[in-house]
Amino acid sequence: MNTPQQRPFAFYGRVSTEDNQDPDSSRGWQLTRANALIQPHGGHIAAEFFDVGQSRSLPWQRRTQASLLLAALRNPSRGFSAVVVGEPHRAFYGNQFGLTVPLFTHYGVELWVPEIGGPIDPDNEAHELVMSVFGGMSKGERNRIKLRVRTAMAAQTLLEGRYLGGRPPYGYTLRDLGPHPNPAKAADGKQLRGLTPDKQTAPIVQRIFTEFLTGNGIFTIAEGLTADHHPCPSAHDRARNRHRSGIAWSKSAVRVILTNPRYTGRQVWNKQRTDEVLLDVDDVAMGHTGVLRWNPTDKWIISKEITHEPLIDDTTFEQAQALLQRRGRGTGGQHLKHRTRNPYIFRGRIHCAACDRRMQGQYNHGAAYYRCRFPQEYALANQIEHPRNVYLREDALTDTLDTWLASAFAPHHIEKTITAITDAQPAEHPPALTTAAEAIIAECDAKLERYRATLDAGADPTVVTAWITQTQAERTRAEADLHAQTHTTPKRMSRTEITSLVQALGDIVTVLHDADPADKAEVYRQLGLRLTYHPETQTVRTEIDLNAHRGVLVRVRGGT
Q: What is the pTM of this model?
């Protein structure tokens, strides 16, 4: 077969952790099926897009490689004329086929599926029905996997008391208990792990329960621990709590310890659940996102037997819960969700300069305020300098801020503002890992070209295919490293990109002038607005970071 007569295809495949399969073997299997379909028709794989670790429930626009494939469809010089998928039930979930195939039709790119035996005909009802069935099967398979996993974890907790992962509670650390009971994991050298008391923090947990039952309040306990220079949970484990100051014990930290049944030696699971909520209620096609929420205590799974060394006995724990209920300070571990009844334009955007914490919204006499009551939540025995109450009225800030924005983004001043934003960005230094990953990808591409030439020259297909599979697996790993590095390293924006973002915001002055509070909040979000309130001077420092919100900007109501 002459190379000029071959038809170039793009390959798309996917595998995730929920599939419980090795990515390399799954990718090789899907590639084999795709090649078996297109090779009799003179096709060859010219480009590959393989998502690893991306859930099938994510729409194509939110999958890393699938989104790159959709972007390539728009490019007339894409280098391929059709796309072949490895397995349709991995590529499409629910109604994703119906939302994706119109893009292929629009750009004149055929979609080939092994189960169809060739290209999909958009006007063929049988093809559409078959793909809908695969989408339903994919959704059903995912739901069955979730049910099996949850059932197994509940049984392992209730009957075996097995530690199922996650952060060990304050007062405990982890230790190895021997080879993992799963033979495959044991073969990889993984160990079964369990909780054991931490010599430094276990006595502090016991002290908290003892003082609480002797009559000390939660805040008094926090004051005492801070005065005695005992690190709070976030200070004890800084690696996992970089987002917290860790300067003092808080009431909430003490309360969490008092309501945790794990200190009785029993394992607990299902304290939280992951609910899937729409990412955008105005665009259902964007799919869902997971949101962690607390379960009521009657939904918790607690082991029947003691599985690790207890720090307190059952009687002490029950007395503490009863005392919390009588004081009206506890909810039995149940976390209630509080909804905001009033709009706050600067919600999550105002920080207190004294403690660098976000200020909370509060309505007083029909007016919106932002407050910081750090001393009422955190112990002050270490002499933290912080006013008892910090208040900032919202309407005292909006007019001044909008006037500043109007002047900064006015037509006669916009160029100067864009120049200031451009110059304020830190210099971009490409990390060495990115350069190394790019070199590996280039080397793999060169190898693949040589292997394909060798295959065309009549070499043994079995041997060459093994080489290609190994090289493609190496290339996929390098792509994953490059993608991770790209998304964790801040990128310096060009002047053109900043100008485009500013223009996408529309007429800021018009939007802000009599705008709905939700619209104002959206504009401030897109601007990356951060306000820092200095109570001692009663001044606010205003910063804008457009780089924090790169990507698609949503036009708010009233925008031009």
A: 0.59
